Amino acid sequence: MFLALKELKHGKLRFTMIGLIIVLIAWLVFILSGLGNGLSTLSAATIKNWEAEHVVYENGAGAKFSKSLLSQSLQSKIEAQPGVEEVAPFSQAVIAILPIDGVAEGEDKVDAALLGIEASSFLHPEVIEGKAIEPTIKNGVVANITLKDQKGYAIGDVIAIDGSELNAKIIGFVENETFNHLPSLFANMDFVREYKYSAPGSNNGVEDAINAFAILGKVVDAIQMEKEVDGVEVVTKSSAINGMPGYTAENGTIMMMLVFLIVISAFVIAVFFYVLTIQKTQQFGVMKAIGASNGFIARAIVSQVFVLSFFSILIGIGLTYLTAMVFPEEMPFNLDPVLVIIYGIVLLVISVGSSLFSVRRISKIDPLTALGRVE
Amino acid sequence: MTLSMKNVSKVYKEGESQIIALDQVSMEVASGEFVAIIGPSGSGKSTFLSIAGALLKPSQGEVKIDNKNIATLKDKELSHLRLHEIGFILQTSNLMPYLNVLDNLLLLKKMSGKVTKQDGAFAKELLIELGLTDKFEKFPNELSGGERQRVAIARSFMNDSSLILADEPTASLDTNRANEVVSLISKEVKARGRAAIMVTHDERMLAYCDRVYRMEDGKLTLQ
Ligand SMILES: Nc1ncnc2c1ncn2[C@@H]1O[C@H](COP(=O)(O)OP(=O)(O)OP(=O)(O)O)[C@@H](O)[C@H]1O
Ligand SMILES: [Mg+2]
């Protein structure tokens, strides 16, 4: 630490520049992970928020709600399966909503995901304003708060559903509920059914049609259940999330970018520290000549890199939160503190790890270098 | 015997040709002895010091420092030996550029563990003796060549090493300073019972030494 800190202090400019590189890399990593996280939240937040462990689809649906059509009458059979604690039917539709008196000048219809659940279901998120849906208010819906914050809807507003004669009434708001990149609109199952299957035959002859069931229960045997209940496929919640349209592709893209970014920065950082070390070959030779052990020099290098990277990464995190504040509200940016810590540690490990390359080099330096003969 | 070298040879291989830098050299230096080596450039003096200081392995022969045969020591033991038994004054003063004068001396103590108050006091005492009273906080690039050399000398005294090896310590000093520095080394040797070997070109410095050797084409002879 002694050498490390003294040298940092003496070579302020040089180390500021290297620190800056690490700050920029960290900044980029955190921004990218925040965007990735925001995007994946946007595409499946509602499902992620579910307490459920498994989801039941129609056989062949491939964990896609839009391809799955089941009858709610299966519910009792599923409930009877071993390990199942609770079953909740779920139905979804993509809609556009507009104020009942028409769209004002300069405004647009708003896309939303209409999600049918049962009023007392465990799929109903906690309302932060107003009240939850109830069977007695058939057309009552609970909307994601962004409809209020960004689109100006309020409790008590009656909204028209585009392409349908149905009207809904906003009775409550929830937060962080999005589905398919759209704000969620929770409604009574009957209401959704009325909207979706109003045309004769549109339910393929399935009685009481729904899209899927969410199952609560830690010890459910999915394979066994598929055997017992005809015509269903049972997947874990994470498979259900991956089945959301675009989710895997989006996540894959972001992950790929992150991985490349991290791998490339590992190289960049390693090269920087390596060059820095090579420049000091003569100095290390002198230290060895006057009796420094490899361990002493290695500790000096590693602790220096650690201090430098640690503070650079902290600054990178700070910058990221500052940037997040100036991002427009619609930007799907969501910094998960857990992710920030994980990526921070990954970056720290990378830079300290890459400095170990230089340390290997040090151990090979001949103390004779000190005599200025061996170059 | 602090240093004992028996029939030491050093051969540098360069492609096809060989350079015999040291040829069957023997020398013994006891504690309290101050020995000088003179000789023309390229005769093998620095090579000799490097071997005596355990920086370089001889091609042949036996080197014992404090009765330890250095051929049998591992890297780690060698650096321990260099740190605790040998004080090096290199041909070009080699200070850490980012440490101030005082820290350059204390670095040695850092290497062997903790720096105590006494170490600080001792370092200052040495620097004062070498006429560097108001340079404690200066960095090497703020010193003259001679001042740097004196810091390097102080550093070689810092650890209680039994063997001091100096490669032309007075090269960049004026006559007065050179006299002071060499008499200081001589004083250290006598007072603290160390052994010292000094390579020099300066015939006037030989007066301080107990014995003078001449190196010529890798062969060492007592004057
Ligand atoms: N690493 C090396 N590889 C090959 N030859 C070397 C090496 N080091 C020294 N030599 C050769 O060994 C001989 C002795 O070199 P050395 O440095 O010991 O001379 P010196 O007496 O210290 O000279 P000077 O007074 O100029 O410092 C020289 O001919 C030199 O070229
Ligand atoms: Mg020489």
Keyphrases for this structure?
heterodimer, A: 375 residues, alpha+beta, 2 domains, 6-stranded mixed beta barrel, two-stranded antiparallel sheet, 11 helices, 13 strands, 48% helix, B: 223 residues, alpha/beta, Rossmann fold, 6-stranded mixed β-sheet, 4-stranded antiparallel β-sheet, 6 helices, 28% strand, binds adenosine-5'-triphosphate, binds magnesium ion
Q: Structural class of the helix and strand makeup of chain B?
A: alpha/beta
Helix content of chain A: 40-55%
Number of DSSP helical runs of chain A = 11
Number of helices of chain B: 6
> What is the number of domains of chain A?
2
> What fraction of residues of chain A sit in β-strands?
15-25%
CATH topology of chain B: Rossmann fold
Stretches of chain B where pLDDT is under 50 for at least 5 consecutive residues are: none
Globular, elongated, flat, extended or rod-shaped: what is the shape of chain A?
A: elongated
Order of helices and strands of chain B: EEEHEEHEHHHEHEEE
Bound small-molecule species: adenosine-5'-triphosphate, magnesium ion
* Widest β-sheet, arrangement of strands of chain B: 6-7-8-3-9-10
What number of structural domains do the residues of chain B give?
Answer: 1
What is the averaged pLDDT score of chain B?
89
Which superfamily, in CATH terms, is the homologous superfamily of chain B? Answer: P-loop containing nucleotide triphosphate hydrolases
Major sheet of chain A: size, sense and barrel closure?
6 strands, mixed, barrel
Give me the side-by-side strand order of the main sheet of chain A.
Answer: 3-4-10-6-8-7
Task: Please state the oligomeric state of the protein chains shown.
Answer: heterodimer
Secondary-structure-derived class of chain A: alpha+beta
